Amino acid sequence: MFHVRRRSAARLAAAILASGLVAAGAIAGAGSAAADDATPTAGGATAVLGGLKTYGDAVIHEDAGDREVSAGLFEMSVDGGGTIQTYCIDINHHTQKDASYKEVPWSASSLHDNADAKKINWILQHSYPQVNDLAALAGTAGSGTLTEQTAAAGTQVAIWRFSDGVDVDASDPAAEKLADYLEKAAQSTEEPEASLSLSPTAVSGKAGEKLGPVTVHTNADTVSVGLTPSTPSGVKLVDKDGKEVTSAADGSELYFDVPAGTEGTAALSVSATTTVPVGRAFTAVDSTSQTQILAGSSDSTVTAAATAAWAKKGAIPAVSAEVNCAKGGVDVTAANEGDEDFTFQLAGKEYTIAPGGSKTITVPVAEDQAYSITITGPDDFTKTFEGVLDCETAATGSASPSSSPSAASAGGTSEVTAGTTTGDLAETGASSATPVIAGVAIALLVIGGAAIFLLRKKKPGRPAE
After folding, report:
1. Fewer CB within 10 A of the end CB, N or C, for the chain?
2. Is 143 helix (H, G, I), strand (E, B) or coil?
3. Could you tell me whether strands 37-38 and 65-78 are parallel, antiparallel, or unpaired per DSSP bridges?
4. Does residue 457 contact residue 274 with C-beta atoms inside 8 Å?
5. Does the reported pTM lie above 0.85?
6. pLDDT tens digits, residue range 56-82?
């Protein structure tokens, strides 16, 4: 990896725990306000960038001349436990030391419109570190002797050719031969499913009913499920048969069982320990750090959350949001499980949803721009989603590098340099001093409680060093 020009953009902090757990207050029923949410993700792993651990040298050939860079594997520490390894898929973007990342689908990353994304996934499955027998890899590629460093460099160079369409070569001859082999041999390999996600992430209905279902999607054998400590007394988490549950599996349907006369809102949390699938994309949460793609995972903590709102009568909305890179914005989905129309204002327009209906509105957001999207309705209903849209790879930059990297500050970004190594970070994005707006802190809902325990999935872990 390497440091090149930073994109001139303001990043708004969205410091969230464990892949998009909803902010405090969750979504309220009609007649009350909800707290702001960070946007978006329905679940998965979140991690902190540790640095470029295994790498070699490469050269980018540009109109302005050749540029030497570092190319290889990053390592991240997963929130809650675990380690993942990643390659860069945004060559002309900087890396931010100690940046927070979240697992996202390709549709919410720069891979959304990349016809070669599936070839990148093939490379990840057929090269280092997934193939850690370097003699065998060298034999297949006809590269000559490979070390961990040259194998990582060659793999990264091949990925960059597909992720960014750049003219880049590995400096080491064996690494270059590996890159050439991987580029020519790559075939389409489908996007992997999320390590853990919930759909939908918000439900609503009337007290006295089961609200849901919320469906679990996971590659773990089993996940731990439970209601948050602030859940009103009497509310239970049950399966489709009404049986109270504390664990679930892929495809399980969960419901909020809300007794008649109960007031308030609720949230459920889901957690597991599993390997994150190779090929999952990771985007930065609270900085402009370059987009990454997963190459290896130890057993790691993954989490997800969903909310429920209810009322006795009237409109009963459930609102959620997710990034839609194909449309260049954020999809805001509102459903109404009440017995009256839900009329709301969003992005300067008014919409009405009949009882039992739903509507998804895409709010346009400029690339690399912080956004704050608020939906308002009757009886002081308010729901706000905040984040930064990062859907494209950066253009080739020519800014002069700063002299040294600096650590990330809470909710902001800092300058990093090209071709230098400080501590364990080999820098991957050069820039001149660019002002960045400090992020706005987001109130977090503390997900936990003694009833929720992580269940380890016992199986051989993917390579992660």
Report:
1. C
2. coil
3. unpaired
4. yes
5. no
6. 999 999 999 999 999 999 999 999 999
